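Dissemination and training. As part of the outreach component of the grant, students in the summer workshop were shown how a complex can be specified as a set of sequence lines and then modelled as a single object. The example used during the hands-on session is reproduced here so that future cohorts can follow it. Participants entered these lines:
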Amino acid sequence: MPNYICCENGILLKEQDSFNIEQILECGQCFRFYKNEEMSYRIIARGRELFIKQSENGVFFYPCDINDFENIWVDYFDLNTDYNEIKNAVSTDEIMKKAVEYGEGIRLLNQEPYEALISFIISQNNNIPRIKGIIERMSEKYGTKYGGGYLFPTLEQLKGVSTEEIFELRVGFRARYIRDCLDKLILGEVDLYNTDCSTEELCRELMQIKGVGQKVADCVMLFSMRRREVFPTDVWVKRVMSELYFGGEDTDIKSIHSLAAQKWGKYAGYAQQYLFYYAREEKIGINK
DNA sequence: GCCCAGGGAATCG
DNA sequence: CGATTCCATGGG
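and obtained this result:
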């Protein structure tokens, strides 16, 4: 269990290594976060609104009691995972050593599968600011008001919403994908909470949904289902891998997955996130 | 106006 | 089969 102390309206996490709230939230794995000031954020997740303020004293979570901290946020922020072990395991070459050093405070969140699934369907062929905007509009229109914002709408709240109404959120061609996703969840054709199966089987199940291909399925499995061996390969990861591991040659996804599995095995998902953050912040593989 | 975004489905050859 | 084309929208 992490080292924390209980304060009046929150929890102060002390001496936590590998925790940088800015890197954790800005590294592209989640969308419902709001920056207040430097190292001070608000998030909406797991049916809560939470403020996080990081300083030299530690990381302060509020409003938050011991129950919520231990039952929700320790899991959400992956606090029982030893990141030193992961960093050592993935640092198999100078490139990854640099990427790990660059994003040393990154943690993989454990998000809610249903929200992650809808969010990453929206993410396809889209950019992060716009993805955030769409999810925000969807929450404001269909979700429950909570604190200073709105919770992500439940399946129950979205079940009767038509494709046309989804389209009005300006999701474009993804409207019918979202509707197909809702239908398959309602019918139980896809069950996000009975996942006692291999990653391959789980991936196949997710990919039954229209608009869910390998990349979206991998993001959902990595960010919300603890499948840390998958290696979501989007344009950024493709670029950085081609640039740094394949001599600048345009490389197909299969070859990238194969190399990732070979180099990083069950920690490939963490390696991917260090590389994604490094590539996007430093714009690796762009113009030159 | 063009290009691109945490891609994937539909269509073509 | 693999390769191309199309899909909505908004920021640069």
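The mean pLDDT of chain A is 96. Students were then asked to discuss how this feature might be tested experimentally.
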